[in-house]
Specification:
By secondary structure, this protein is α/β, with parallel strands linked by helices. The chain has a single domain, classed as NADP-dependent oxidoreductase domain (TIM Barrel). The chain is built from twelve helices and ten strands. It has an eight-stranded parallel β-sheet. A two-stranded antiparallel sheet has the order 1-2. Helix 3 links the parallel strand 5 and strand 6. Helix 9 packs antiparallel against helix 12. The N terminus is likely disordered.
Length: 304
């Protein structure tokens, strides 16, 4: 991920440049309908410099794409848009991918997307079939750049090799990565992405809200998250929570801004969600500064 003078970063070796923090929109819209209420959030994102939006055809049944398309049309603003193809069980041929992109572009109200990803490398269709189809949509002018999501080390190498033969860079691999989910470090994926010049995009950088500083033993999460993150987890989280608070106070930053900035410092591109204007402004506060190397180590020592 190469930094440019104006603060934008390149996605891999592609010509697509984005803000160093993106926005996950998997909760935008509902029941297949666009959400006009997201216009204020959309405008706040642009005003704070968060101009990279991550969506997918399966997010809220296509509503996320429809909401983004409606926001673009009503405001005239032009974010960098990444969307994804999901290899549903009945999609058995490479031709399904450009057909799905065509439908995504209709919902987004765009002539092409900036970045198009294979959402999951699911069988029975070979990975190489989908990667060649991604190359096809670039050559057809329907996507500026392409990438993968949820792919492991071996799959990333294969995807990179296929695209290299076509003269097209593998722009990114989008995977879960945060202070509480560090598998991309331990399984070698982060190192491989750096070796190949592929941007690692980190979804759930706040680990479903567990790194926002909102929750504690006294104030545990509710609903489904209470089943996933019980008292034992919250107890183990205390040292990291204290470190985030301590470091945040030094920089005048929130816990979530510290957690997002940690991802940036690791050489990845975080895409936290933003449901409203407040979250948009808070996420933007993770840009424009850096944790020190010692602070990065201190945070990692506090990880459960």
């Amino acid at each position: 991920m190469k930094e440019a003078v104006e603060g934008l970063v390149s996605l891999g070796a592609s010509d697509v440049r984005v803000s160093p923090v993106g926005v996950g929109t998997n909760s935008w819209g509902a029941r297949g309908e666009a959400d006009p209420g997201k216009k204020a959030t959309f405008e706040a994102l642009h005003a704070t410099g968060l101009t990279f939006l991550d969506t997918a055809e399966i997010y809220t049944g296509g509503s996320s794409e429809r909401t983004i398309g409606q926001c673009i049309k009503s405001t005239g603003l032009s974010p960098v848009v990444l969307t994804k193809f999901f290899p549903l069980p009945w999609r058995l041929r490479g031709a399904a991918l450009p057909a799905a992109l065509s439908e995504s572009l209709k919902r987004l109200q765009l002539p092409r997307t900036d970045v198009y990803l294979l959402h999951f490398p699911l069988p029975p269709v070979k990975l190489e079939t989908w990667i060649n189809a991604l190359a096809d949509v670039v050559e057809a002018g329907h996507a500026r750049a392409v990438g993968i999501s949820n792919c492991d080390v071996e799959q990333t190498r294969r995807a990179h090799a296929v695209l290299s033969k076509r003269g097209i860079p593998l722009a990114c691999n989008e995977v879960q990565y945060s202070l509480l989910h560090r598998q991309p470090e331990t399984n070698g994926l982060l190192a491989l992405c750096k070796e190949l010049g592929v941007t690692l995009i980190a979804y759930r950088p706040l680990h479903m809200g567990m790194l926002t500083g909102t929750y504690s033993i006294e104030n545990p999460p509710k609903g489904m998250r209470s089943m996933m993150f019980g008292r034992g987890f919250m107890t183990k989280l205390q040292p990291l929570g204290a470190a985030m608070k301590r470091i945040g106070e030094k920089h005048g930053k929130s816990a979530s801004q510290v957690a997002i900035n940690w991802v940036i410092c690791k050489g990845a591109l975080p895409i936290p969600g933003a449901k409203n204007e407040r979250q948009a402004r808070d996420n933007a506060g993770a840009m424009g500064w850096r944790l020190t190397p010692d602070e990065v180590v201190e945070l990692e020592r506090g990880c459960p």
